[in-house]
Amino acid sequence: IQLYARVRLALKNGEFQPYYQPKVSLRSGAIVGFEALLRWRHPRRGLLGPQEFGQVFDDADLAGAIGERVLELATRDMAAWVAQGCEFGHVAINMSSSEFTRGGLPERVLTALDNSHIQPERLAIEVTETVFLGRGTEMVRHSLQSLNHAGVRIALDDFGTGYASLSHLKQFPVDRIKIDRSFVHDIEHDIDDAAIVRAVIHLGQSLGIETVAEGVETPAQAAYLRANGCDLAQGFLYSKALPASRIPALLRGWD
Ligand code: G
Ligand code: G
Ligand code: NA
Ligand code: MN
């Protein structure tokens, strides 16, 4: 059975589920939010990440259907955390180009938030720079602007790995830059990676954009990032992505 048909079935059977990875303030050590990372609980193959099925995001219909499901589940999880008195900060969800070009995205997002009684400020949308390229950039700009005006935060993912253009930071509303984990990995030993990371942090500071380091795995990496003024960090040093049910305990056990 073909992947696309199998994904349709998985949607029908409720096999997709967002897991949540914490983002930590490098200044205070507190958890300030989470990134929703999609997982497929495959009945035979076990827990799969997007690297095993990410090509389905290239299909506009499937990407749209999966995106709607992620939005529905993430807002539902946020509402459940609120009901438990759990202070989770914000949740960032990832969106691919085809989710924008379908149209109606701002309305769908704001309706989902409204239905769960979640303030827009508690949601962030992560996009990579590829959404700014090619056809449909006017639609993307318009969607991001309406969401941003409503209070939703916009994060630029994998910064520096794609066709980065600094003009994107002017043309699109960007609240947060995510420094790709490929730059963070060797930060202590590779002077070029370290220089790039410091430059991105300074760029963020100059423009009033928050910086988030991805893939932080060691205390030494975190210390370097903190010393150089990076705002937030995310990575296995703190936690891998966990199912929603485990987030309240994670927050309770955090210093
Ligand atoms: O979760 P990691 O565990 O494997 O995620 C791999 C990639 O898949 C990341 O680049 C992430 O941005 C992307 N991704 C994860 N969840 C989603 C999602 O719900 N929608 C989209 N479009 N991309 C996602
Ligand atoms: O959106 P994006 O590609 O940046 O998604 C983050 C990806 O990185 C996910 O696949 C997630 O599981 C993975 N990830 C999260 N923390 C770490 C980490 O500390 N090290 C590595 N190597 N990968 C991580
Ligand atoms: Na991401
Ligand atoms: Mn990323």
Automatic annotation (TrEMBL):
Parts forming coiled coils: none
Domain annotation EAL: ranges: 1-255
Domain of life assignment: Bacteria
Protein name: Diguanylate cyclase/phosphodiesterase with PAS/PAC and GAF sensor(S)
Organism: Ancylobacter novellus (strain ATCC 8093 / DSM 506 / JCM 20403 / CCM 1077 / IAM 12100 / NBRC 12443 / NCIMB 10456) (Starkeya novella)
Taxonomic placement: Bacteria, Pseudomonadati, Pseudomonadota, Alphaproteobacteria, Hyphomicrobiales
Shown residues in whole-protein numbering: 490 to 744 of 761
